[in-house]
Amino acid sequence: MGEIRRVYTRCPLCGQIFRAAHAGSYITVGRDTDLCPRFPGRRFDAARLIRSEITMCPRCNFASAEDFRELDLSFDERYDLEERLRGDGLLRIFRANQPPWLAFHAAEICGQERRLPARELGDLCLRASWVCRKAGERAFESTFQLRAVRYFMRALDNEELEGRRLPVTTYLVGELNRRLGHHREALNWYVNAERTMQAVGRMAWLDRLISRQSKLAREQAA
Ligand SMILES: [Zn+2]
Fold first, then answer.
1. Which of 40, 49, 117, 128 has the fewest CB atoms lying closer than 10 Å?
2. What is the DSSP letter of 129?
3. Does pTM top 0.85 for this prediction?
4. Beta partners for 31?
């Protein structure tokens, strides 16, 4: 299992200085079909490791996957972020026991206020669904999968996804739909993913994944 280092960090929103957890190098042993990395060792450690990709301020709850030192927030952004974080129901309810997905939720709402691309917001929700699975939180896993699907679809409609990101994102919309029980929808998206892959060049691993998951979705849909 990888180690977690603690690094002094300054919150770009409220100025609080705190020690943030950062994952050092770690080994993975393959990936799940929604690309969630598998780690040797205990599931809970895995949740902690994925969680450490996000830095969250313990005072104001500002959160981001980016390095805090590189964030420069404008006056308007600060105002909107403070309001949004103060008014958020989930942060208020879960602040005390800090489930591992909470930091992703905080990063998502901060990302919305900062107008991050939908692909990035989708990635945050996808990662949140991974930590929920590793932590055994099924209901929240589905909630975040659904949110990831919505962001990814918005990204496919409105954003320029470079190279391999296009077929991978399309595949993920299919796979998350399948996991949510929408098998017919999933099958359509797998076909789309295959088509977009032809445009950027064949990716053997994705090709294999698409045919295996299509077969599974067809069986589940029957
Ligand atoms: Zn703060």
1. 40
2. H
3. yes
4. 37
